[in-house]
Amino acid sequence: MSTAVLKKLHLVDFKNYPDAELSFSSKVNAFVGNNGVGKTNVLDAIHYLAVTKSYFNPVDSQNIRHGKPFMVVEGAFETENGTDTVYCALQRGQKKVFKRNQKDYERLADHIGLFPLVMISPSDRDLILEGSETRRKFMDGVISQSDKLYLDDLLAYNKALSQRNSLLKYFAKNRKWEEATLEIYDEQLIERGVRINERRTLFMDQMKPIMLEAYSKIASENEDVNLSYASQLNEKSMKECLLESRDKDKILQYTTAGIHKDDLKFELNEYPLKKVGSQGQQKTFTIALKLAQFEFLKHVTGRKPILLLDDIFDKLDEQRVEAIVSMVNDHQFGQIFITDTHADRTNEIVKRIVEESVVFEVNSEGVIKELEA
After folding, report:
1. Binding site annotation covers 57?
2. Which sites bind ATP (predicted)?
3. Which of 216, 210, 221 is nearest to 291 (CA)?
4. Which CATH number fits domain 119-302: 3.30.1130.10, 1.20.1050.90, 1.10.10.10, 3.40.50.300?
């Protein structure tokens, strides 16, 4: 199975890094240092190269180093077809420049999926604690990395939804109502929404067994967890949903029914994980979910995604850490990047991983140095 490997990374005024150039192992790369020194920022730069944006902050300009006019994130990926260079630059007040092999993209969406990537981070707990939009974004992000048509449908659905909402506000403001005009957008939402729902349903059917297996491997005891896809379209057609909610939409001036209301349900012992799960159980659940994402992308793209593990060993007991290390040693993964505040713990983990590895130390000045093996 092929895998894209990030060999080099160059940062200029990205977050806290004035200028950094790094060369990576094709297997395991670990970054150690205190909290707040910028270890996670290196992983976020790698996320930029694969997904065209930050994992943590969607406002591009806020990722430029404080007080500086621009940023650059550049990387060289080794693939089965040779070396691909990816270049991302942003000047304050300007449009983001994103190139592959020195060619600009007409649409950034065309880059998504070329270098499959999975990030596992403490912020993934938001998937459990936050509202449904966070879980939909996760679902959409995974499917979009493997399905261009899905991404096109999603962009078109969101555009039609925005236009329909604007029309509802216009009707309210001008005290008028035109069913025929509204139905134009309904048709667009139905066409795209039905396909999105079908793709999400298929995705969940594929993800669920992988996720449950990953959880049972990591968990120290037999814990009954479940994952399910909640959608209005599970009960009735998209057309029925829109028709039945029309009076409500008229009053509220926005579209209250459709696949933009979908959600994922996470359960432990048949109760919401958010309410009954311990921190360790919640962390195990999100890690298992992300490892299922990894396996899903590996299966549908035929490529092992790059795996970014941001501070994932914290709040896990020794047995759960050991289980994750065992998975790495089973050669299930391609290139891995790890951050940890505990240098000793990382060194111990890296020693137990039989793959080739490099450990970097990050200090408070934003300087990264490779430690001797």
Report:
1. no
2. 33-40
3. 210
4. 1.20.1050.90
